[in-house]
Specification:
single chain, 719 residues, alpha/beta, Rossmann fold, 6-stranded mixed β-sheet, 23 strands, disordered N terminus, disordered C terminus, VMAP-M2
């Protein structure tokens, strides 16, 4: 059963005052009625009241504890029998115990006592484990609401052994009070109006940020657990774009209209949007040698054909989130091969978004490139994303009919090569043994995904020159291991903040060439490799932050907070960070004095997995850093290409886009500590690897001159 043929949906909404609460909730019944109305609207929530219960009484404002418990158990049993999705909503008062467990107060509950209250987290876990339920969606509009979110351990066990789906939207954090039933009121308004640009179905994760934006005294929380796959949604989107299949999308329509304006003999009337109309126009334009019109019409038709194949191939497993991931992957793999990244406008529904992407692929073809190359890439990538064979008969038939068999083979090879590079082994060189800046030994390992497969210590003189002179030996060791499959292409260097700020390891001589000429060198902050106790949970939070960045709206530039060091008050910055006032990616727009730079970067590193700042020799005039918008989806790997472009001074060979080349040169003026999800995975398991094998001490003459090469900028040393 998929999202377009959803299971039945049952609703149990309970709203009650409590004799044990210190205040009465004004407008409780009205808020409950408003939420009930949208959730039972067939065009929105699609729910029916749980059978056998008095829905009006249960949201009347006075419901006893025994009634709450009985109603929940009855609703769970009924939903299980119907194999339905159960939507549970609790409005009223909540209190927390010392263990941060939420107790929902019924009409006869008492303050400070749990015996007459309802343990919501336990009820949700019991519901999730009941046989037959298609899923449980829970809304909690009480004080301390997030304390009612069940722990994952209670969901992965039970009689269903984790084969359940749960989504929770809570009005506020576990330590916060909730005000004015704002979750219920805001949610009812959002669902009644609909969300432009979102998909046909709205999960709680889509709605939570909008609720948070509308409430300034409480922070709504959302949680989702999916042990079975499929989509668990709260409501249908009234403003979902339901453009029928086989119609021109926005980009195709604009391109065709522009081509028609350049054709003096263009037929009157608006441009056609249907398959039949476009086919007739393409034939007419070919006869009149109006090549621009013919190419536009044929391109739209080709996009329609590819969209039909892709949707049939992927079926219900293709989601809007996967389309977003495909866009990012496309921009990364096609960087420099096209005149800029794909940047869909906001407001497109899922089918319209798919048509836009495929029209972009076929209508923005670089000179000399295959017309079907990018279309074939989308089919290959979508097949991988949905667990289908990229050589599926549907794709091969499409390629044969479109005369695109070679383009399909090239696309499959291109996609596989990029994915192979993503999974190649990397060398990790950690300088974390240093007390402040430079260590007297390097902790080195070969990283295979999130696993440390070989580990060794290398002694070195405790200064920049000593570390850099040891790097060739480290590279030789890594590339001579029995497990080595070839040269190491990427090197992660883990350093403390003083070294992080101004060390340019890509400029260090590593054999015959500088390190950055043949390797991608990435600096990582040592604090994330071994998480300090006072930053407990920092990396776990960073994963959630990176997911927020991945879901950032299109059309608004890169999701980066631009911080002007001259206008940032260092004394208040820690408090602002603790309040969550900065996004997960931070760019210092200027280069302050060394002391201020260190203070700023040290403050941001625990709170932002991505921190960027200008290098020391960057011109002082203001910069817009447009390079980030152009190259964002290709980062952080793009930094290696940028540094290599500047180090070698070689202009790229065609067909690299000159605009992309200019942006790469500009990007090289930035330094970064970029901790992506793969790196966080590695950090999570780093402390579990086996003991390192010490390398034999290598005598390094202190006075030996370093081989000639561009001088690396020394990092500031502590006194």
């Amino acid at each position: 059963m998929n999202a377009r043929q959803p299971p039945p949906r049952h609703l149990l909404l309970i709203a009650t005052q409590s004799d044990g609460a210190e205040n009465e909730l004004n407008g409780l019944e009205a808020a409950a009625d408003g939420l009930h109305a949208v959730l039972t609207d067939p065009a929105i929530g699609g729910c029916t009241d749980s059978p056998g219960l008095d829905a009006a009484q249960l949201r009347s404002g006075r419901v006893l504890r025994a009634e709450v418990d009985s109603a929940v158990r009855s609703a769970v049993a009924a939903a299980g029998r119907a194999r339905a999705t159960l939507v549970l909503a609790f409005l009223g008062h909540g209190q927390v115990s010392a263990g941060s467990r939420l107790w929902y107060l019924a009409a006869d509950s008492k303050d400070g006592q749990s015996l007459d209250c309802v343990d919501l987290a336990q009820l949700v876990a019991l519901a999730a484990g009941h046989p037959g339920l298609a899923g449980v969606v829970v809304l909690i509009d009480t004080c301390h609401a997030a304390a009612g979110i069940p722990d994952t351990g209670s969901l992965i066990g039970g009689f269903r052994v984790g084969a359940s789906k749960v989504a929770v939207l809570a009005a506020c954090a576990a330590h916060e009070r909730a005000f004015g039933l704002s979750l219920s009121r805001r949610l009812a308004a959002l669902l009644a109006e609909g969300l432009p640009g979102e998909g046909e179905f709205l999960p709680v994760g889509t709605l939570a940020p909008l609720v948070r934006d509308a409430t300034d005294r409480q922070l709504a929380a959302d949680f989702a657990y999916n042990g079975t796959g499929g989509v668990l949604w709260l409501a249908r989107n009234r403003r979902h774009d339901r453009a029928p299949a086989g119609r021109a999308g926005t980009l195709g329509a604009e391109t065709l209209a522009a081509a028609l304006r350049r054709w003096p003999a263009a037929p009157p009337g608006p441009p056609p949007h249907t398959r039949d109309g476009l086919t007739a126009l393409a034939e007419q334009a070919e006869s009149a040698q109006a090549w621009g019109v013919q190419e536009a019409a044929d391109g739209i038709l080709a996009a329609m054909d590819a969209a039909a194949v892709l949707t049939e191939l992927a079926g219900a497993s293709l989601t809007t989130a996967q389309l977003r991931s495909l866009v990012a992957e496309f921009n990364r793999q096609w960087l420099g091969l096209r005149p800029g990244p794909v940047q869909p406008p906001e407001g497109l529904g899922d089918r319209a978004l798919l048509q836009y992407l495929l029209e972009d692929a076929v209508l923005r073809v670089p000179v000399g490139a295959s017309r079907h190359g990018a279309l074939a890439w989308y089919l290959v990538a979508a097949a991988h994303a949905c667990g289908r064979d990229p050589q599926d008969r549907l794709i091969r038939d499409w390629a044969r009919e479109a005369d695109a068999e070679i383009a399909l083979n090239d696309a499959a090879k291109q996609y596989a090569a990029h994915r192979a590079r993503d999974t190649e082994r990397r060398l990790v060189v950690s300088l974390d043994a240093a007390q402040v800046d430079w260590p007297d030994s390097l902790s080195v390992c070969v990283r295979d995904g999130a696993v440390c497969v070989d580990h060794r210590h290398f002694p070195c003189p405790p200064d920049q020159a000593g570390v850099e002179r040891t790097l060739p030996e480290v590279l030789d060791w890594a590339e001579s291991l029995p497990s080595a499959a070839g040269p190491i292409d990427a090197v992660d260097l883990v350093v403390h903040t003083p070294v992080l700020l101004d060390w340019h390891p890509e400029e260090a001589l590593a054999g015959m060439h500088l390190l950055g000429v043949e390797h991608t060198a990435a600096l990582r902050w040592a604090g994330r490799l071994v998480e300090p106790r006072h930053f407990r949970g920092m990396n776990r939070k960073a994963r959630l932050q990176l997911e927020q960045l991945r879901c950032a709206p299109w059309g608004q530039g890169p999701p980066v907070d631009r911080v002007d060091p001259a206008e940032t008050v260092l004394d208040t910055l820690p408090a602002d960070l603790a309040r969550g006032r900065y996004r997960p990616a931070v760019l210092l727009t200027g280069r302050p004095a060394p002391t201020a730079l260190r203070a700023l970067v040290e403050a941001f590193l625990p709170y932002a997995p991505i921190v960027l700042w200008p290098r020391a020799d960057t011109p002082p005039e203001p910069a817009d850093w447009d390079c980030l918008a152009h190259l964002w989806d290709g980062l952080p790997a793009g930094f290696g290409a940028a540094y290599r472009r500047v180090l070698t001074g070689r202009e790229p060979l065609p067909p690299v886009d000159p605009v992309t080349d200019a942006h790469l040169i500009r990007l090289a003026d930035l330094r970064t500590a970029w901790h992506d999800a793969d790196w966080l995975d590695f950090c999570a398991g780093y402390h579990r690897h086996g003991p390192a094998v010490p390398a034999p001490a290598v005598a390094v003459p202190a006075a030996a001159p370093a081989p000639a090469g561009p001088a690396a900028v020394p990092a500031p040393r502590s006194t």
